[in-house]
Amino acid sequence: MRLAIGSDHGGFHLKSEIIAYLTEQNIDYYDFGAYSTDAVDYPDCAAAVAEAVAGGEFSRGILCCGTGIGVCIAANKVAGIRAALCHDTFSARMAGEHNNANIITLGERVIGPGLARDIVGAWLAARFAAGRHARRIEKITEMEKKQGGKRT
User: Fold this and answer.
1) What global pTM score does this model have?
2) What angle do CA 110, 95, 136 make, to 5 degrees?
3) 60 φ, ψ to 5°?
4) For this structure, is 65 an active site residue?
5) Which end of the chain has less neighbouring CB within 10 Å, N or C?
6) Active site residue: 45, 64, 65, 86, which one?
7) What is the residue-level pLDDT of the chain in tens, covering all 152 positions?
């Protein structure tokens, strides 16, 4: 497994904590920035991570901003991305098991570093349940195709 990770300035510290966790777990990752708390636009970091995941360079991605909302909205504009905002472990597990989320988003101003580690761990451990859930994911893919492969 190879993860793409990114943040804007508002999620920089949380991203740094998650990177420490990934390093402790020997999980390979690439950091798409931000690399400081200097202001950057969240759509830019979300696009970089989402495009890398959608393109197959990385199996999954993690995005952080102040709330996790902005990067979630932006990432979901990339065809093939199923980004899920997760602020608890149950949502993270369900994002993996039921929605086959290939990106999770978290908010630095919403959750602390310990919970962020637990959320990431729960999502990484989750396995897609397929079955009726696969049918639903296929319907999402068909929606994207009707849009010409592009999200609006």
Assistant:
1) 0.91
2) 140
3) -150, 170
4) yes
5) C
6) 65
7) 899 999 999 999 999 999 999 999 999 999 999 999 999 999 999 999 999 999 999 999 999 999 999 999 999 999 999 999 999 999 999 999 999 999 999 999 999 999 999 999 999 999 877 677 677 878 877 778 877 755 54
